[in-house]
Amino acid sequence: MNIMTKMAITATKAKTEFAALVDIARKEPITITRNSRAVAIMLSPEEYARLMDIEDSYWGKKAEKAEKEGYINAKESEKFLRSLT
Fold it and tell me: What is the pLDDT confidence band of residue 15, given thresholds at 50, 70 and 90?
């Protein structure tokens, strides 16, 4: 997957301009590239937290759905695993 943001910079240039990139990344994500391929995305802590909240919500909903559909819950799973030893 080749994800690019509005701003992209080579890894070499990112090393020499790191302080400026930190300031820019607080406002918008920056793609760091190596050999014309995205290798990292630099973003603000707020944006990272927002993305983690979205991911946590997604997996929480998946877990709720799985439990409603008949998958065993954590207690049953633990009991099953203990029975194997």
Answer: very high
